[in-house]
Design a protein that fits this description.
By secondary structure, this protein is α/β, with parallel strands linked by helices. It has helices spanning 3-22, 33-40, 50-58, 75-82, 94-106, 146-156, 173-181, 197-200, 222-225, 230-243; strands at residues 65-69, 86-91, 113-117, 130-136, 157-168, 211-215, 253-259. A 7-stranded mixed sheet has the order 3-2-1-4-5-7-6. Strand 1 (65-69), helix 4 (75-82) and strand 2 form a beta-alpha-beta unit. Helix 1 runs parallel beside helix 5 (94-106). The longest helix is centred in the N-terminal third of the chain and has 20 residues, at 3-22. The chain is globular. The two termini are 30 Å apart.
């Protein structure tokens, strides 16, 4: 993809997220204390949502340098800081970064987070600087230049570091078709797309032991059966992907973790 086209895509993405962040009221920036404690005390469990599983995987963060890669308006950056991490966080949207800084001040963690406006793949952080690089639903916005992004993540991470990325996936052609046919409201930018397993394969060049935990297959049925069935269906999803690996193509979310 030529640089002009790439610049146009990034300009549309920035415009979308500038507008979204500009409409975010201050009350929406507050993270409930019980939610902060939830991630601070996250443990491995078949009942976990993907973000619970990510925090459980990272374990104790006290004193660790963590990069929130594409931080949006800073929810995860603030959670990481509340868990004891020294956080750097960036986003291409200056309006989102301003909201993230406001959120950090609200929660008393501004001194533990450095926010920057950068484009993914073009950050100016020093090499081998971070113990952990995380991302939450960011790579599918960067599908046009994932190779550059993966190389940068590798550069920024310490030799002993690890990655944790949560992404929406659509490996099933059937489910991709149903998504187009089903009148469910989708919050999406014009240029993003759900990823497939092949999009993650280049990561193995840097992280050969890349692992994936899948979420949100049977749990989709809560839209029909009601919210009371979400947790039991999530438990079934956790075990089904291990007993019947071929079902993984039907899951809608993946947590990617790896260390060197």
């Amino acid at each position: 993809m030529n640089s002009i086209c790439q610049d146009e895509i990034l300009a549309r993405e920035q415009s979308f997220f500038d507008l979204e962040a500009d409409g975010l009221a201050i009350e929406k920036l507050r993270i409930p204390q019980d939610q902060i404690e939830r991630y601070r005390n996250a443990r491995p469990s078949p009942w976990n949502l993907s973000k619970d599983a990510m925090f459980a995987h990272m374990g104790r963060l006290d004193g660790r340098r963590v990069l929130d890669y594409g931080c949006g308006h800073g929810e995860n950056a603030c959670l990481l800081a509340a868990c004891g991490a020294e956080v750097c966080a960036f986003d291409l949207s200056p309006v989102a970064i301003a909201k993230a800084q406001q959120r950090a001040r609200l929660h008393g963690v501004a001194d533990r987070i450095q926010f920057q406006v950068y484009r993914a793949g073009e950050t100016e952080y020093p090499s081998a600087h971070f113990d952990v690089v995380i991302g939450y639903a960011v790579l599918h916005h960067l599908h046009t230049h994932l190779g550059t992004v993966y190389a940068e993540i590798d550069r920024l991470l310490k030799p002993t570091g690890e990655i944790c990325f949560i992404e929406p996936v659509a490996n099933s052609r059937l489910l991709r078709a149903l998504r187009r046919w089903t009148p469910v409201k989708v919050d999406a930018t014009p240029d993003e797309r759900q990823l497939v397993d092949q999009d993650f394969e280049p990561l193995r060049e840097y992280f050969p032991k890349l692992q994936a935990a899948h979420f949100y297959c049977l749990e989709r049925l809560h839209r029909v059966l009601g919210p009371s069935v979400r947790a039991p269906l999530r438990w079934l999803d956790h075990h089904a992907q291990r007993l019947l690996p071929f079902l993984r193509r039907y899951y809608g979310c993946v947590l990617l973790t790896a260390s060197r």
